[in-house]
Amino acid sequence: MATKKHFNSFEEMLSGSDVPVLVDFYAEWCGPCKMMGQILEQVNAQLNGRIRVVKIDTEKYTELASQYRIEALPTLMLFKQGQPVDKIEGVLQAPQLVQHLQTLI
């Protein structure tokens, strides 16, 4: 999950993905956001290749946070074929998150 890739734009990354993209909108200063890192690793392992997990720092990418109306942290958004299909605010444990995502992917 810790692979860093560079894209020209957020939209390019979303549209270029062959699997749904789960975006974790976070900030370095956010305690609950830090908890989500380990949870997302578990989710990614359980869904093994069925989703791509991407982290977006809302402090660095304020325009994306505004565009997608990120008002609470952490916020997870699931994108399919470049379009947002689900938004989850706050911390969910891995089993609940996996169960929720499986209904959408």
Question: How would you describe the overall organization of this protein?
Answer:
The chain has 105 residues and is an alpha+beta fold. Strands 2-1-3-4 form a 4-stranded mixed β-sheet, with helices on one face. The mean pLDDT is 92. α2 crosses α4. The chain contains 4 helices and 4 strands. It has one domain: Glutaredoxin (3-Layer(aba) Sandwich), CATH 3.40.30.10. 36% of the residues lie in helices and 24% in strands. The longest helix is centred in the middle third of the chain and has 17 residues, at 31-47. The chain has helices spanning 10-15, 31-47, 62-67, 94-102; strands spanning 21-26, 52-57, 75-80, 83-89. β1 (21-26), α2 (31-47) and β2 form a beta-alpha-beta unit.
Q: Could you write a compact summary of the structure shown?
A:
This protein is an alpha+beta fold and 105 residues long. It contains 4 helices and 4 strands. 36% of the residues lie in helices and 24% in strands.
Classify the beta-strand content into a percent band: 15-25%
Strand/helix succession: HEHEHEEH
- Which structural category do the helix and sheet elements fall into? alpha+beta
Extended strand count: 4
In the CATH scheme, what's the topology name?
A: Glutaredoxin
How do the strands of the widest beta sheet line up side by side? 2-1-3-4
Number of domains: 1
What percent of residues adopt helix (DSSP H or I)?
25-40%
Total helical elements: 4
The CATH architecture would be: 3-Layer(aba) Sandwich
Intertermini distance? 18 Å
Quickly name the level 1 CATH class. Alpha Beta
Average pLDDT, rounded to a whole number, is 92
Rg from Cα: 13 Å
What is the CATH homology-level superfamily? Answer: Glutaredoxin
Shape: globular
Low-confidence stretches: none
